[in-house]
Design goal:
The chain has 523 residues and is α+β, with helices and mostly antiparallel strands. 50% of the residues lie in helices and 24% in strands. Among the domains are: 106 residues, no CATH class; 153 residues, 2-Layer Sandwich (Heat Shock Protein 90). The radius of gyration is 53 Å and the shape is rod-shaped.
């Protein structure tokens, strides 16, 4: 994948992710707004119902208390009689319909101490209704109407309580406005009314309230209630004279925000969960793209390195073969043997490279079997040094051992452990700029044998240390072929040490050398 295509894919994926998350947050925000408006409407309806309940309770109590005073006729002051007459003649059905209604108004002046005045005027209204239908059966209608009684007649007398109530309420609302608030309503009544109305509408969060008189607080309130944030809900209390009121009931919900969020918590949690899943999927997809790109680059470098590694021995073998064919040399057994040794050595090098690749492949597929036996690590390290002493001597360096461990027997595969330490020693030698100076230390630590391989080479940066055990990884420094290798040695070391139930780590500082630390469990 080209770098340009990779950038475009990442850019489009990022735009899609941001768009999806933005839309999700937009709908969440709208849902919260709708829930807040619904909550506000429910509270307002509940407060209106509470205010009406309290006022109707007050009027009903006054009505029951003082309606008894109008029973005695001695309080009657004036009487007003109004009569209404309606008559209709139906010539088709030969019927005469007569309707008469009489309204009697009696006014009573009764003493009332509750309002701190001498008396009040109360009106009592009666209604008398007379329905009459006369049917004519002969031509002389007037004579028959005088002689024959009506066939149907209904007389109804009733009190017009609706009219009385309207007159009563209008009068008492104005008078009650002069009564002190504490005589009209109590904290308990407001508390119970609010609680019942809120519960009826599904509002279960805590609330506080307070009754104010034209901006001034009264004693009818919850503890510590005060108008502070300006978001309290308000309803006029004890309305009189065309909607006027001297009192206002305020209600506040201290935990309103958290309550609203709790009512939609399931939807919010699901939305957040799916947003998290989307972000995780995006992150994993991006990580996989980066990994694939890195692996592609590493494999390209590996192929280049492997080609370079094979190219040199193949060229050397070809030159040796051409030299042997030379008639002047073919009869010189000493030179022939030297060229044959060169061919054998170059062939061994190629075979070693192939074996390294195959070993890593088997490790990846878990196809590599270990032959576990009792092994003395000191002997393993000594043998590994023996295999590399020619290289060390050729570069005029040294590999010194400092065996301080009293216990060095572990259970492991002798052959693979030799390869492990050969790889680490080989790295220490290759990455030494001048003559290699390598020290090998062993010591016991609890139930572990600790091996440290320290060199005074070029060292590594912190970033390189994070990837040094990755497969195919090699530090990119100038020409990647300056130091030969495929980036497989330390990957093989790590996997093999882990198969022996141990662990390997590195400590390094740029231009000051590196120390590889191996811990293996003792028997």
């Amino acid at each position: 994948m080209s770098k340009r295509n990779f950038i475009w894919i990442v850019l489009l994926m990022t735009i899609a992710l941001v768009g999806i998350i933005s839309v999700q947050f937009f709908w969440i925000r709208n849902f919260i707004d709708v829930r807040e408006k619904q909550f506000s409407n429910d509270v307002k309806f509940a407060l209106a119902k509470v205010a009406d309940n309290i006022q109707q309770r007050e009027l009903n109590e006054i009505s029951e208390t003082y309606s008894k005073l109008i029973v005695e006729k001695k309080n009657l002051t004036t009487t007003d009689i109004k009569r209404f007459l309606y008559q209709q003649v139906d010539t088709v059905r030969k019927e005469t319909f007569t309707y008469a209604q009489t309204i009697l108004e009696e006014n009573y002046k009764v003493p009332i101490d509750f309002f701190e005045q001498d008396s009040i005027l109360i009106k009592k209204i009666f209604s008398k209704k007379d329905f009459r239908i006369v049917r004519d059966q002969v031509n002389n209608k007037e004579m028959l109407a005088n002689q024959l009684p009506p066939e149907e007649r209904l007389v109804r007398i009733q009190r017009l309580r609706g009219a009385e109530k309207a007159e009563f309420e209008d009068a008492f609302k104005t008078l009650l406005d002069r009564v002190p608030l504490y005589k009209r309503v109590s904290n308990r009544e407001i508390q119970l009314n609010l609680q019942n109305e809120f519960q009826a509408r599904g509002i279960t969060t805590n609330f506080i309230y307070g009754v104010y008189s034209n901006g001034l607080a009264t004693k009818i309130k919850s503890d510590y209630f005060a108008i502070t944030k300006g978001k309290e809900y308000m309803i006029p209390l004890f309305v009189f004279d065309e909607g006027m009121s001297r009192y206002q009931l305020y209600v506040d919900f201290p935990e309103e925000r958290s309550y609203l969020l709790s009512t939609i918590s399931q939807i919010l949690l699901l939305s957040i969960f799916f947003i998290f899943i989307i972000m995780m999927a995006f992150g994993l997809a991006l990580y996989q793209l980066l990994e694939q790109k890195k692996i592609s680059e590493i494999k390209t470098d590996f192929i280049n390195n492997m080609t370079h590694e094979f190219k040199t021995p193949i060229a050397t073998i070809n030159l040796a073969l051409d030299a042997i064919k030379n008639p002047k040399i073919i009869h010189d057994s000493e030179k022939v043997n030297r060229y044959i040794s060169m061919i054998r050595e170059e062939n061994r090098r190629m075979n070693t490279q192939v074996e390294n690749v195959l070993r890593i492949s088997k490790l990846e597929k878990n196809q590599l079997s270990l032959t576990l036996e009792e092994v003395d690590i000191h002997d393993v390290i000594e043998e590994a040094i023996t295999h590399l002493h020619l290289v060390v001597d050729d570069r005029q360096g040294y590999v010194k051992t400092h065996f301080s461990a009293k216990k060095s027997i572990i259970k492991g595969d002798y052959f693979h452990l030799i390869n492990v330490f050969m790889n680490m020693l080989d790295n220490a030698i290759k990455y030494s700029i001048d003559s290699p100076k390598v020290d090998v230390y062993t010591e016991n630590e609890s139930k572990y044998l600790v091996i440290k391989i320290a060199d005074k080479g070029m060292g590594m940066s912190k970033n390189v240390q994070k990837h040094i055990f990755d497969k195919f990884y090699r530090e990119q420094k100038g020409n990647i072929h300056d130091i030969k290798g495929h980036g497989l040695g330390l990957s093989y070391v790590k996997k093999m040490i882990e198969l022996h139930q141990g662990k390997v780590d590195v400590e390094s500082e740029k231009d000051k050398g590196s120390t590889f630390i191996v811990k293996l469990p003792l028997l």
